[in-house]
Amino acid sequence: MANFELAFERTMKNEGVYSNDPDDAGKETCFGISRKYHPNWAGWKTVDAFKKSFTTRTSLTNALKGNNVLLSLVRKFYKENFWDCFELDDCKSNNTAYLMFDTAVNMGKAQAIKLAQRALGLKETGRWSLKLLNELVK
Question: Which domains does the chain have, with CATH numbers?
């Protein structure tokens, strides 16, 4: 069965810790979680408190990546929103599960579903289905 922790760690290597780039569609992000798209994520309270105390990017980044409570919220967010929704624990291949997970994180769930459907020769609906799950878990 696929392992969330392996996929999560692999994806986090690409996400970075904190960014607030006006040219980035996500604007302010923490571990890849966009405030623009996920303004109610519980971790923003910690981020905001840390931004007041740690005024340089380096000190803020170090504080955020060293906070176990925040990291727990990050894991929970990704597991619930991009792993469990696809039932990826049932996937036999870590690589297949990772590809579905990482694509959903970076391109959105509907696009990840469409790409998986295309790769498997299924009708591209952008909607999760039992048929797609059954193909992924083979």
Answer: 4-136 (1.20.141.10)
